[in-house]
Amino acid sequence: MECGNIAGMAASTRWIVLVALAAGVASMGALNGAASPGKSDVANRPNVVVFMTDDQTVESMRVMPNVKALIADQGVTFDNSFVSYSLCCPSRSTFLTGQYAHNHGVWGNAAPNGGYYKLDSTNTLPVWLQHAGYQTIHLGKYLNQYGTRNPREIPPGWGQWYGTPDPSTYRYRTYTINENGNLVTFGSAASDYKTDVEARLGVDLIAHQAADPRPFFMWVAFVAPHAGAPKDPDDPSGMSTPSPAPRHRNHFANEPLPSPASLNEADVSDKPAGVRNRPLLTPAKLRAIRENYQQRLESLLAVDEAVAQIVNELTVTGKLDNTYIIFTSDNGFMHGEHRIAAGKVVLYEPSIRVPLLIRGPGIPAGQRRSQFVVNADLAPTIVQATGAQPGRVMDGRSLLPFARDRLLQSGRDILLETPTYAGVRAPNWLYAEYTTGEKELYNLARDRDELSNLQANLSYDSIEANLASRLARLRQCKGSACRRGPQLSLGTRVQHRRGTRDCRSTRVLYRVGGPSSRRISSVAFYIDGHLLKRDHRRPFTALVPKRLAKPNGSLVEALIALSDSRRETLGHRIIGCSFS
After folding, report:
1. Catalytic residue status for 482
2. Which residues of the chain have pLDDT under 50?
3. Which of 203, 235, 446, 580 lies in the 20 to 30 Å Cα band around 39?
């Protein structure tokens, strides 16, 4: 829509309907791979380091000052980050494939329906990165049951392998690491504490990369704060806990257990039988939960130190500025909410919410994002950042455009799925259907602790029907169908002041429409991030003078809020007038 093309369009009164792009016009090239580096400049491609904890809640991030200072304060924190299947192996398989469980096929931690050998490891993220010219490095926990057939096995795609074969994965001391095919056993000395060993190995591996012209991808997978051996003197009876580093033991001995309204929920009569049949937690059980909570926080202190050591080595080797660093967890964890003393898998917020921080080239520092993201987005993010070619149809989308643009909203729902239930997580709603026929429906805008199941409330039937329809589509989705938001479009029409074709008097009229437009509650129009107009009445339009646009192009974005709580951004690039 440059000035030279306006004359031929001026007489037309028809609307030009733009394709609805949830990621916005500014990100079109990046989402399609056009912004990714080419094969000719492999050496200049960014490195990627992923730190992944095991069973970590968002609440516990407060005890990790190094992670905050080195990653969060230097990058973007995603405040609404979820996992689709809150369990170790299915979640990590999603990380390795960019797919929901119904597409990658791993439905549990153990055979026959889950575990390491269930995943097709010949077609995963490290394989794609290796084909793209990357050195690939794994350090720490991999997938459950890895190594039970052959502890010396190195999964496809990994150039440097320092994985922990089962059954020693969940041991903080007296464990084994497969170091590129050589089994190395560590003892019970303080220096053998697993997180500390992984920190030293991580530093050494990055130091060795300084002489390697290839970019590298490193996945550092800590077992903390997952429960694991050995037993410590203060472990509570009847509950598995992690084993903190000796220097951190009892650091949080006086820390209270968080007490949301859902803790030891008084009335669970509206919950499915799996929760409804649970007794109230006794004072003794609550004390055990608190001790577990304290030890889990303590185990994270060594992780925080390890992150600092590895990031420092990136600085020493001159790699930091060209490295994307991602910090996340494979799933959350329950600490007595809804009477669930410990564990995950369930669809409640402490179980499915996980920390997610990203820093790296082009990522703004110290910002937070409200967009809804899922662990299926991590592989697409790394693929876009590195220019690798995926061998699978991925269900997620790259997070880089969202990190760079605070206005970008996808409008999509998040699928939650396990063998016993499937659910949909929308901004203000959680809806789930169980194989038993039971259902759950929560209005999270009013009930963030998920205390009142509205499924039997007739006044919410239309909302439930809408969510059920969306869930039915997601349960079978693949690729772009998993990312699809509301059916919306952004139409444009050029207007000239009567009797002139001068660019400076030309205006572009934007209008939001599409089959889902009946659900629109408001539209905010922006140009280059600056608010132009907020419209609460149909037909949801904005008139943009071209003189406001930059000669080299400006981005007009329509941030659309729907009555069902979803938000989607549509964008259009407009070329401004030259005044030279």
Report:
1. no
2. 1-13, 19-39, 579-580
3. 203
